[in-house]
Amino acid sequence: MTPITEVEGRRVSLSNLDKVLYPATGTTKGEVLHYYAATVGGVILPHLRERPVSFLRYPDGPDGQVFFTKNPPPGTPAWVETTAVPRSEDPGARQVVVRDLASLMWAANLAVEFHTPQWRDDAPEIADRMVFDLDPGSPATVVECCAVALWLRERLAADGLAAYGKTSGSKGMHLLVPLEPAPSGEVSAYAKRLAVEAEAALPGLALHRMKRSLRPGKVFVDFSQNAASKTTATPYTLRARPEPTVSAPVTWDEIAGCREAGALVFRAGDMAARLDRHGDLLAPLNDPEQARPLPA
């Protein structure tokens, strides 16, 4: 029988709690749900609450079937909120918005990564943050990503913008910048301009083009996730990787001090202590007073 628990007055069905989702560490689905409920619920919700969410589902673990979905899954409870996100192939499309702990636990029970756009559901295609996805081409690692991140931080600061870092939870990292609301197309154009500048300033290290033949040993500065239709792994989401790695906020001291590929790998079990030490390092992203205008 599927156990049912009550979360903030909502009845939430939780299934297969003993199922191992991460064989490399023996991490069960029940432990994953505990991570979202008890460890990061209070900090992930502000990053999810006002954004349509896309799910990368891995119901049988990262070695099983993994698939991406934007539509609300079949059987979505009526109390889970959705918002209209029209697409050319489906003008009536809607997506889930995770506004509360009950919705978070319902979604986490599906075994998912959470991915969100750079805009909020009340202002589609108007971005309130900018993202750079730094993706290393082997043999480059997160160490090289950190070097590019430090250059981008200084370049953004020259334009009056503050940057905040997090690991991707995979092999790279993300830089996020709070903005006064601006059209996604304008944000994308500015991000591309900085990616091109990064390649010119760091020719042996940074790359703004996606072409795979150019990428070995370099860091691809992916600006494309600023497009209104694109999404990025939400802060604190677990990833569908061999181990329960987290897209974890990091300090600039950690970025500057990174000397080996494993230095910025954080797992679910690391996050309680990090939150006790740092709080939510990405809280400024949700503070309107920290937003700055996009440079002309």
From TrEMBL:
It is an enzyme of class 6 (ligase). One of its GO terms (molecular function) is DNA ligase (ATP) activity. CDD domains: MtLigD_Pol_like. Signal peptide: none annotated. Its EC number is 6.5.1.1. It holds the Pfam family LigD_Prim-Pol. Residues 28-281 form the DNA ligase D polymerase domain. InterPro entries: LigD_pol_dom, MtLigD_Pol-like, NHEJ_LigD. Keywords: Ligase. This is Non-homologous end-joining DNA ligase. The gene is ligD.
